[in-house]
């Protein structure tokens, strides 16, 4: 049985099966990337509910695994060097799991490069821009009277949707076959409904994007990943 005693996070969120991957997450767009990947690969894992409140993500136990105080994070008890390893940052986790399993990361160097570039596009563009639009449309930023911040993210959000729609022309998935890039991108498209900005961005005008999201949401592993761990404890 794996020894996870070197990870203080396991004191607050104990492992029922230390031999399984331990996921510390919440069903946000970034969180469901990893739960979906774990479901798609069939890896054994336990999902621990870590809320976005400071009492959880700023707790000493969580910070001991992820000093950036953001979900998701995980512990793989069967690390590549034969010892448990902790990983944080959703994109890094997806790359790690793709490498570990040989799944959804590309079958050769060319495919891996194509997938990685779209993963980085999501990490550096789509996620941050949509997240800021959500802040200025649904959360505290919506109280700011100056319209310029929201207009900036609307403009950039529309541009990014157009980029994605064009790239999807003639193919089901963004990098050819279904991959970690799709697991990263599609949850952020789904978040537009939660933020209440779908009409604002004109997503319905991006037919390839709409069909793409529908394909993603129809996958059984995705349907499980979207509610893992459950939002309510």
TrEMBL record:
The keyword Transferase applies. Its EC number is 2.5.1.18. Residues 108-233 form the GST C-terminal domain. Residues 18-105 form the GST N-terminal domain. Gene3D superfamilies: 1.20.1050.10, Glutaredoxin. Keywords: Transferase. The keyword Transferase applies. InterPro entries: Glutathione-S-Trfase_C-like, Glutathione-S-Trfase_C_sf, Glutathione_S-Trfase, Glutathione_S-Trfase_N, Thioredoxin-like_sf. It comes from the Bacteria. This is Glutathione S-transferase. One of its GO terms (molecular function) is glutathione transferase activity.
